[in-house]
Give the backbone structure.
Amino acid sequence: VQLVESGGGLVQAGGSLRLSCAASGDTFSRYYMSWFRQAPGKERSFVASISWSGSATSYRDSVKGRFTISRERAKNTVYLQMNSLKLEDTAVYYCVAASTPGAYKYWGQGTQVTVSS
């Protein structure tokens, strides 16, 4: 599976961005999809995930109510809508595909999100 993220950029605090992750190379619906992020000097950490069907989602506490993960099967794409962005959301965001929850197998190259004051 190949994953290509897009949609990152520079945004002011309080603004919004939508990240996209386009998948190719295998049946997209087989994979449990997640977003991770890595801020400068910090370890990579979980942000959000969505089940194969899209019916179940989960989020890290700090983004609940602000971020929304979704997937569009027809386009083999998963999205991360990020609202009310904060300075601490600045990071490289990675799209990840897992055959089962937690079994992170395929990673995208990452897209930079920078939130300014």
DSSP finds no helices and eleven strands in the chain. The first strand starts at residue 2 and ends at 6.
